[in-house]
Write a structure and sequence with these properties.
This protein is an alpha+beta fold. The strands form 2 sheets. The chain has a 5-stranded antiparallel beta sheet with strand order 1-2-3-6-7.
Length: 187
Amino acid sequence: MPRTRRARHVGAVGVRAPPLIRPVVIYPDRRLKTPCAPVRSFGAALARLARDLEDTARSFPRTTGIAAPQVGELWRACFVDCTGHPKVPEPHGPLVLVNPVLMHHSGAETGREGCLSLPEITANVERPVEIAVRFRDLAGDLREIEASGFEARVILHEMDHLDGVLILDRVRSLALDVFPRKKRSGG
């Protein structure tokens, strides 16, 4: 009797691989302070990394972004999604920014930021209010977006990770601008 082959779903068109939630790299791991290499190949490995970034980010409540070095990959890629955030009335939706470059910025505002890789603290960080960023999408196509307010802050925070820069590097005073993270109750 001939053997029948089971259909393979991994990589099949229109079928998403099961979620892979990667462990988040925690400071002082040296990968967080290492500048990332530009992405040169826009194929299956990059697509899988993008899915893993999204799945990992979505596994943490209220998380709006994550960068490749935070899951141990030193590639210039990050995931941002401010959808549903009260400070972003018109978000760009889920974005994977590959090899992003800040093209323009204006204004300045200090705001409180947290980071998955620094789970015990938050910090006051000054960032531009309006930005324009050029990047490649997963297909390698060049795109440019403009963002403002909180969404601009999230994009710049994730781009900093790609350069080995953490919020601790952006504060004016370690004594005055870094705070223990508030514990949230589970119920």
